[in-house]
Structures are given as C-alpha cells and as structure tokens.
Design goal:
The complex is a heterodimer.
Chain A (H helix, E strand, L loop, with lengths): L4 H4 L8 H8 L10 E11 L2 E12 L4 E4 L6 H8 L6 E6 L2 E2 L5 H6 L2 E3 L12 H9 L17 H9 L15 H14 L4 E5 L7 H15 L3 E5 L3 H7 L2 E6 L2 E6 L1 H5 L2 H8 L14
Parallel strand pairs in A: 3-8, 3-9, 6-7, 7-8
Antiparallel strand pairs in A: 1-2, 1-4, 4-5, 9-10
Helix pairs in contact in A: 2-6, 2-8, 5-6, 5-7, 6-7
Chain B lengths: L2 H30 L2 H26 L8 H19 L7 H6 L14 H25 L5 H20 L1 H4 L5 E2 L3 E2 L2 E2 L3 H27 L1 H11 L1 H6 L4 H27 L1 E2 L6 H14 L6 H19 L4 H15 L5 H11 L30
Antiparallel strand pairs in B: 1-4, 2-3
Helix pairs in contact in B: 1-8, 2-8, 2-11, 2-12, 2-13, 3-5, 3-11, 5-11, 8-9, 8-11, 9-11, 12-13
The chains are: A alpha/beta, B mainly alpha.
Amino acid sequence: MSDTPATAQPPETEIDLAAAEALLGTDTSRFRHDYLEVRGLRVEFDGFVAVRDVDLTVTQGDLRFLIGPNGAGKTTLIDAVTGLVRATGSVAFGRTELLGRSTHRIARAGVGRTFQTASVFEELTVLQNLDIAAGARRRPLTLLRRRRGTPEAVEHALETVGLTALRDVPAGVLAHGQKQWLEIGMLLVQDAHLLLLDEPVAGMTHAEREETGQLLRRIGSQRVVVVVEHDMEFLRSFADSVTVMHQGRVLAEGTVNEVQNDPAVVEVYLGAPAGPATTEGDLP
Amino acid sequence: MTVLTALLRPGRARTLAAFALAAALLLLAPAVLSPFRLDLLAKFLCLAMVAVGIGLAWGRGGLLTLGQGVYFGLGAYLMAMHLKLADAGPGGVPDFMLLYGTGQVPGWWEPLRSPVSAILLVLLVPAALAALLGWAVFTRRVRGAYFAILSQALAAAFAILLIGQQQTTGGTNGLNGFRAFFGYDLADPVNKQMLYLIAAGVLLVMVAVVRWLTVSRFGELLVAVRDQEDRVRFLGYDPALVKVVAYVVAAVMAAVGGALFVPIAGIISPADVGVVPSIGFLIGVAIGGRATLLGPVLGSIAVSWAQTSISEQFPSGWIYFQGALFILVIAFLPGGLASVAGKLRRRRAAAPPGEAAPGDAAPDAGPGPELVPERSPA
C-alpha cells in the first residue's frame, strides 16, 4: 500500500486548537481533583531493578516532562503505571489505585498512553482508528452495528489533529508526524484524563513540534499530562516542570531552570564532575 | 452522506453482485450436475462452511485455528448420534451398539433422541466448548504459533478419544448407514437434492453473517486486535473477549457444516475430524484468500474439487499436490488467489483511497501477523 496518493502529495495538516477546545470543554473545574501520585514504585525484571523508590506527583495544569539518559527507567515507569509490567508500591490516579489492575481496566479508569514508535492500526482508516478509540465504553451489542456517521468527539478530534481531509486514508500511509498526531487524537477521544506520552515529537519537523507543543500545553491545562522527551529545545519551550530520572531513580525535580542548574543532573548528562551549567546547550 | 459511505458504495455493490452470482450458480447446479456430482458439491459446501468461519477467525482476527476439525466433528457426531437413534429399531438401540457394545444406549446419548434438542445441542455444545477454551486461552495471552499448536493438539486428542470409544462412538468406523434425515428417506434423490439446497442456503447465510460482522464496529475492532493487540488493550478493551467471539462464531459455523455433512456424506469417522482434515480446512482458506469474504469459500470448494478429481486420476498423488499448492501460495501469494485481482488493479492504476475500506477485498496481507513475533510496544 505504498502507492496511495495520500503519500504522494500530503495535504496541509495543522493542529487546530479551537477544535481541541470543543473536545476538552472549557470547564476546568471538572478535573480539578485529578492528579497522579506515585509512591515507592519498584519494578524488577529477573533480579534487575529497573525502577526503584520512585515518588512522583503530577497535578492537572502542570505539563510535566520526564527526562533522563537511556535506560533511566522512564518508559518502564509508564509501563508500570499502565499495567504493562508488574510493579510494587503505589500508583494512584485521583482516588483510584492503579497497581494490580489489568491494563484495559486501567485504561477505563481514564489513563491513556502513546508509544515511542507510533502504534496506530495501520490497515484501518484514520476515522476507524479514532472511532475504536472512542468506543471502549460502548455497550457490547452496539458493536455489532455498522458505524453510521461520525461521532461528535471523533469529528472534533479529526479537526484538532488536522486529519479531517485524510479521514478515509489507511493510517499506515500517514506521514510519521501525522501518525503521532493521530495517536494524540485517539487519547483525546478516549477521554483519557491522565495522558502519558512517550516521545511524542520524535522525528517531527520544527513546525510540527511547535504545533504539538501548543496542543499539549492546551491539553495539559485540563488534563494530567506526562511527557517523556529527549528534545531539550522542546522541553525548554513547553515544560512547566521536569523530573529527571537516572538509573531507575528520581534524580531531580523542578522547573526547567532549576533542573538545568542542578549539579547532579549536569554530572549525569556530561559525565563531568559537578559544576554549574555553563551554556544553554549543556543538556543533550 | 459522508465521504465514507460514498467510498464504500462501489465495494458494497460489488459484494452484492458477487453474492447474487454465487446464489444463482448454486441454484443452477442441480439442473446441470449429475446426482453423483451434486452430492459431491453438497459435501464441498459443508466443508466450505468451516472455511467461512476460519476466514473470520484467521483472516480478520489472526487466530490460526488449526483444530477446526474438533468443532466440525462435534457437530457431525451429535447429528450422527441423533440419526442413529432415529433409525434404531424397536428397542431404540442403534445397530452398531448391538454389535460391539452392551446393547444399552449410554445416558449421554439420550438428550439427542429428540430432533429439537439434537439441533440445539449441535449449536450449543461447540459454542460452549469454544467459549470456555477461548476464554481460558486468550485471557492467558496464548497466541500466534502457540495457539495454533494447542488447537491442533486438541484435534488430535479428539480423534484419539473417538477411536477409543468403540462401543459408544463407533471407534475407527465412525457412525454410518443412516437411512433417514428428520423423517426424510436419504435414498430418495429428491431428498438428496433438498439437502443440497439446504447446504447452499446455509452457506450463503453464513457468508452474509461474516460480511455483516466484518463491516460492523466489531469487525473493525477485530482487525485492530489482530494487528495491535496491546494498543487495543490500552484503549480500554479486553482483546480476549473480542477473540472469543470470533472463535465461537467460527466454531459454530464448523459445527453446522459438520451436522449437514453427516446426512450428505452418509458417514462421519475420526478420519474426518483429526489433524489432517483440520489442516485441510485451512489450506482452502489460505489458497482462496483468508482476509476476503468469498476467498475462503471459493478456495475451499476449489481444493475439495481438485482433491476429488486428482484422486480419481492419481490415487496417491493428491497429498503431494496439496502440499505443493500450499507452499506456492504462502510463498508467492500470501493474500491468496483473491488478491490477484486487487494486485492487477493496483498495477493498472493508482488505487483510490477507499481501497482498504472494511469488507472490501482486503489488502494483501503479509505472511500473517500471527506468525510474526510479537512486537513489543515498549
């Protein structure tokens, strides 16, 4: 399916924040009590401790970035929160304890995530992808019916991530950045209140990053959002706060400036003895 | 309405046309075929019912069901037991039990004496077994080749069990020598023709059911589970449930095929339900095109027909021919023969965006997601 016209001339796609407004609603008080609280989290694989003693609190309206060198345990932390790997300790979202629940129940509790490699249903169309994401709460028997028309939330999500014109294109032929936007759109129609995004802007152009950042900021004002990202420029532009992980532990936490000037962080990133960060480009 | 329905329309028209053509051909067959050939075709249609179910479970759901002989056999044996009881003489004991058994009908045969409960059991027993087994297997996340091996082992065990129960299931000989089907004399050619028409009608209904399931939201979800099971889980669905439904539908279709096979073929034995026939069901589906609607039916009928005609010429040559055909299709045409048309069309012109609309001729799938190692999303 490589020769579909969609890839030949990609139409202009743009994030539409006004549509996101319609999707998220303007009532910020509704989710005021949402927060992610991780306490004493520990993940072990056959004796290897990938994550240990992690405490993390993220509230709504605080766009949190999670950074750290490869193998620091960032993705494992997300896996533990979403039930993909076994963990001990406590992970609470609002009043709901997530640890020990099966993955699909955690998802139904309002937790959504994306993956490092965009994982959409490639043989299904953009519209079908979003429709499935929107449907986990549908009653089983309604699944036996054919989809007629487009659910309102799906329509708004299509506009939000700028894929309205590509709605009937198989998701497999989308450009890389569009796939990642589609994934964010899926999280929105899924009505996730805790969004865990694993490298959402990897491989995007500068303009696309900018738009994605604006969208995440917009979502972050009403949802609890945690972003794993390596792109420091992106982080500086959009992060409200940063948590640095190293060897499975939380190394530092604070605003971008605080973290950037933290001697321990500098040492981890540069391998040099602790010292004040000198230039803007110190972090990788 | 929306752009989507507009795009779907050609696919829908094509499906309807193909469906009407198939119905016409099936209705025409009694007029042109000799009773012997018609009987063979009726038998092939029963085997094709198994293929329709496999097309849903394997083609859309990625479940490599290598043991459909179990469900085919359950349906067939339940029906055969009913026919034997109905045929039985004054004592109500089937002939073979008087010969090999104690002359007593075992208690678990008794529910099959009534025609109504026999039909219900043909549907419910395989459905219940498939639901139970599917639930146990899919919630433990057994999939891919492991699921295939498990289902195949089940077929082997089922055949061995039947062989071991000479007194109650007829052992290697199976059950045969049926005289009547719900009161209709099976020696009468008119009744034979009626059986053919029933089989043709049931097959068409099954194809329609699969088509309906495929274009429904369930069908879209099934494809999503096949391609990205974990992603589906993170959206809040339980993929095991989706798979169980597809597996149960396939099992019931196989059972109905088996139940109709019995009066038409006049015999059911462990040789019809074991490992080899289970693989045979799959080969027809693979050759026809597992992800398409009519591919499994046409492939299955073509393979059955080829088997008969080649066996008539070279009695022992078929099995080699079958193996070679299977390898050729898997190696060079993973989408099956049904994907040839799509390939040619795509070569001729750039495909329209609606190409992969649900229920349409499916895009040529790769070697099959269930054979490829799971991609970890981490």
